[in-house]
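Researcher: Re-running this chain for the archive, since the previous output was lost when a drive failed. Same request as before.
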Amino acid sequence: MTRLFLVGLAVAVFCTVSLAQHTATDMTSGDMTDMSGMPSDSMNKASESFIGGLEQHASSGTDALPNSTRFEMPMWQRGKWMLMIHGAAFLNDIQQSGARGADKFFSTNWVMPMAQRKFGRSGTLTFRTMLSLEPATVSRRRYPELFQQGETAFGKPIVDGQHPHDFFMEVAALYDYKLRENTLLSIYVAPVGSPGLGPAGYPHRASAAEDPLAPLGHHLEDSTHIANDVITAGIAYKNIRLEASGFHGQEPDEDRWDIDAGRIDSWSTRVTFNPGQNWSMQYSVGQLAGPEALFPNETVRRMTASLTYNRPIHAGNWTSMILWGRNQSLEDGNVGNAYLLESTLRFLNSNTVWTRIENVDRTNELLSQTGPLPAGFVERYFTRVQAYTFGYDRELGHTSHISTALGGQLTAYGVPAALSASYGSHPFGAVVFLRLRTR
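Model: Regenerated structure tokens:
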């Protein structure tokens, strides 16, 4: 894995330094003569085909979105290289009610620099890294989120909270080779990255773009968007693609500033189908070896399925996703499911409303609150929680490459009888935020 680490470090340095050396110019009006053979459309425009969208690599890993999805980002040109940067930062204040509610001021954020060029007669080479300052902007290794669980802080399970992302969210190299006009072979190598398991991670979904918090079902749906020692191969034909991945199954440790490593002990496979410009669906299955640090000997079988719809409208855009995720312990057969619906509507250019509705199984870790687990503890799914989020923000203005919005959201919860004594019958949470995004 040392080679993967060195490759990743080189990718991160190349992307970051190259982007730092140049002043942004809009690619749509820039000179593309040195990019012969590259698509003339920038990522600020929708792709005209499934394969064209895959070659853009504007999301994490090898994830696919509807062809009509637009990514607004600054672009540079340096000889034969096309350089891009995409990112978002939320400055949040959260307040929660009930005996287990909490409040906090923190920032969730990420930035994704990328470099791409033609490589050979029919190939495209892409270097991409994704970085987050959340290890510094989320203090105490967590931010409050009622009923959330997954990973650890100071050696104890995180309950009613969400862990920060690692500084290195992704460090990857991708190579695409067109076997024929409608056939694309892709190879993805990442010391830290996203295998072909689940939909696009929530920070990169247009349907979740304005929500600063993680879904409650994150660890049943898309938590592998940060995995280590990832290798993925995929073949796409017209509007369908099949992928297979190998990766290290353990989730990131509590040292959020480094790149973890381990042997490739887990696998996944995913099929993606885009039946039209506005639709994308995927089904994936994977086997994760010891994903949770507190249960290193447990192997988890994960399945996910999702359907995404994106529709550009006059002066705006509407995008939605329905998602199912399922974890099954191969040690004791215990099964947990998560169901999610999220939708975001941007209208009149400057206004956005969104919702996220979840129905999620929870484990008995929630009963431990913030204490250590007792000796011999066996984690089991034992109840189900609902969450209903509604939000609004408005653009305040923008510079040439940064847009700014002020907004907020409110989340109400459906509490099962097994947890009402601890949480109360009707807890809720509210977040107000200032959002910055590249454009």
